[in-house]
């Protein structure tokens, strides 16, 4: 007898891609990852547009400006998405996990 037969029918989650999106924890993390992505785009654009600490001048005078821009963007992406997802998990009521 497979272990999935022990789960009541109302608690079963479909397998595959459709089943992943039915999982509320996955949806919570995906939504907050998107919030982190938007925050990353805003912060990244703000840093370059305002030329904070001469950052845009430094990047544009680089031999290949795509490398420092990619490093800055993906560093911010990892940081801000992690913060958004961690904050969402920590704000869950105690019995929801």
Automatic annotation (TrEMBL):
Domain of life: Bacteria
Keywords: Membrane, Transmembrane, Transmembrane helix
Transmembrane segments: 28-49, 69-92
Protein name as catalogued: Uncharacterized protein
């Amino acid at each position: 007898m497979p272990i999935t037969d022990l789960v009541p029918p109302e608690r079963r989650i479909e397998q595959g891609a459709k089943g992943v999106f039915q999982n509320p924890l996955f949806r919570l993390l995906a939504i907050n990852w998107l919030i982190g992505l938007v925050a990353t785009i805003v912060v990244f654009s703000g840093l370059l547009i305002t030329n904070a600490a001469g950052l845009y001048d430094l990047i544009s005078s680089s031999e290949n400006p795509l490398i420092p821009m990619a490093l800055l963007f993906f560093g911010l992406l990892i940081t801000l998405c992690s913060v958004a997802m961690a904050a969402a998990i920590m704000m869950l009521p105690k019995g929801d996990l």
